[in-house]
Design brief:
The protein is an all-alpha fold. It has 8 helices and no strands.
Length: 262
Amino acid sequence: MTEALVWLFAFLIGATLGSFLNVCIYRLPAEKSVVAPPSSCGACGQRIRWFDNIPVLSFLLLRGRCRACGAPISIQYPIIELACGLIWTAAVLRFGVAWPALHSALLLTLLLGIAMTDAREMVIPDQFTLLGAAAGLLLAFAPGSIGILDAALGAVFAFALLWAVKWIAERILKKPALGIGDIHMMAMVGAFLGPAGALLTLMLGSVLGLALGVPIQWVRGRLSPLATYLPLGVFLAMGAAVSHVWGDALIDWYMRSILGMG
């Protein structure tokens, strides 16, 4: 099989999973089954036939509208499908057809689902985080992974650290702080990236939340008093993605430039 066909196959797998990820993004926060009923138009209720459910392509052929009633289809569907296709292609380009590619693609796909559900519904489903953590631990046994010891330590460390932050913050602020979804998410990140990767994720997520999230929420809060919640999972997902792709380089730069080591 030529490299181009391998890349195409990776894209198709990713785009197909992206289609399923869309279902999860819409249904999991509402505690609905992702298996039944089959996908249907939100406007007219018409069941979507298989040839109208081909990732990205069907949206383009239908010009973004339901075949039955002509209602517009959310642009989120093809964007998520395309993003997942590119994630899986990039993983194969970076690692080849190997276990680390699956490790990378699965982590980034989960992070995308988490970011979208937290941004849309202010919820991080356990189906993403707890099942994701289990997947991270299983993949730790694969060749080229971080190893089961680092994965287990990362999951426990991240969970304990976030739980401690939540406990301390609630006693200082006298109100709920951090969601359990954020804690479960960091356990998943730790299972994939280990203790160092989880700590870097938390640092990056906090910086991104302060630099981007707080100003955005401040503007939204001025427009609507109800729009004051900061979806921390979005920024933790961004931090985890950066940590996964450039974590080693960032840690090496920090050790050399800031601490003067190495």
